[in-house]
Design a protein that fits this description.
disordered N terminus, 331 residues, four-stranded mixed β-sheet, binds oxa(dethia)-CoA, five-stranded mixed β-sheet
Length: 331
């Protein structure tokens, strides 16, 4: 947390989700599960899926273009592109470079990907805000984009029912003092890494016949451990970021938690004493979209007027790493 981030704020939001909807009822024909199990354990009814022709950069480019349009800013004005993702188009080059090229953003703009599990958007927002606070960038594009459906083992009912694809983007610029990003907190606990991972495809386990046969290129998760961790850190991180901003739980006007499971969101809201009408929930329609979940939720809340100018908005993410983090914004 740094005082100098006081004047970096979000001036535009945009999203992109694939058209294809996969319902719980369809999943009943794919794995040994029921709609009732999925909904009662997670709050998810349906999720969006990319087709074989769509990759993360496709969703990211559309979401970013919409965020720029909504901000009334030309792509040439962007100084830095950060894409938070766990599912880049390729291991290299960075997906952010593809977005830069496809949006016609100038070559003097920086572009890089950021990996921090599902907390990636909170990290990218924080990193982007620091470039603005330091005066080295005027306009920063921060994107959370994901096609986790491509990294799921569609025979593993404990994971394949949970995730969905999508992208969300925000444009950061200097905003009047006292508004914008007031405080942030980032956390990590690498000891929890084995609870949520894609074991192969990197330098530890490069692709071989054995890694393919062992299905090691797909996401693996110890759901119960991640669940316990998430319930603990969600409220804790929100409280700590509020304290860092000199605010209290009662000041929260709107809460945007990472959309992984309604049974993680509700206890966090209870701990913070926030009624559910001040809590964004769209996990029912999108499932867990990882780094895209917070910007997808933000876009919806801004569009339907649930977030108004002057509101204190708290965002909290958690995910692989293990990582977690929180941001408080005066909208
Ligand atoms: O972005 C961060 C990433 N991840 C998360 O946030 C996920 C955090 N974890 C969770 O949300 C929950 O732990 C899950 C939704 C993944 C699982 O819910 P749970 O209440 O923790 O269930 P469980 O893992 O304790 O499993 C209960 C039972 C098991 O059967 P037994 O061992 O009790 O006989 C599972 O085999 O449910 C079974 N099960 C299923 N049954 C029907 C697991 N997946 C399914 C399924 N359909 N899809």
């Amino acid at each position: 947390m740094r005082r100098e981030v006081l004047n970096a704020g979000i001036v535009g939001v945009g999203v992109c989700v694939p058209d294809r909807i996969l319902t719980n009822a369809e999943l009943e024909h794919m794995v040994d599960t029921t709609s009732e199990w999925i909904f009662s354990r997670t709050g998810i009814n349906e999720r969006r899926l990319t087709g074989p022709e769509q990759a993360t950069s496709d969703l990211a480019t559309v979401a970013a273009g919409r965020a720029l349009t909504n901000a009334g800013i030309n792509p040439e004005e962007v100084d830095l592109v950060i894409v938070a993702t766990n599912t880049p188009d390729m291991l290299m080059p960075a997906t952010a470079c593809m977005v830069q090229e496809r949006l016609g953003i100038k070559k003097s703009a920086g572009a890089f990907d950021l990996a921090a599990g599902c907390t990636g958007f909170v990290h990218a927002l924080t990193v982007g805000s620091q470039f603005i606070a330091a005066g080295s960038c005027r306009t920063v594009l921060v994107i959370g984009a994901e096609t986790l459906s491509k990294m799921l083992n569609w025979e593993d009912r404990s994971t394949c029912v949970l995730f969905g694809d999508g992208a969300g983007a925000v444009v950061l610029r200097t905003v009047p003092e006292g508004s914008g990003i007031l405080a942030f907190k980032l956390y990590s606990d690498g000891a929890g890494g084995p609870h949520l991972l894609i074991p192969a495809g990197g330098s530890r386990n490069p692709a071989t016949r054995e890694t393919l046969d062992g299905r090691l290129h797909f996401l693996q998760m110890n759901g119960r451990e991640v669940f316990k961790f998430a319930v603990r850190v969600m409220g804790e991180a929100a409280e700590e970021v509020l304290a860092a901003a000199g605010l209290d739980k009662s000041d929260i006007d709107f809460f945007i938690p990472h959309q992984a499971n309604i049974r993680i969101i509700e206890p966090a809201a209870r701990r913070l004493g926030i009624p559910m009408e001040k809590v964004m929930v769209n996990v029912n329609r999108y499932g867990n979209t990882s780094t895209a979940s917070i910007p997808l939720a933000l876009d919806e809340a801004v569009r339907d007027g649930r977030i108004k100018s002057g509101d204190y908005v708290v965002m909290v993410g958690f995910g692989a790493g293990l990582t977690w983090g929180a941001v408080v914004i005066k909208w």
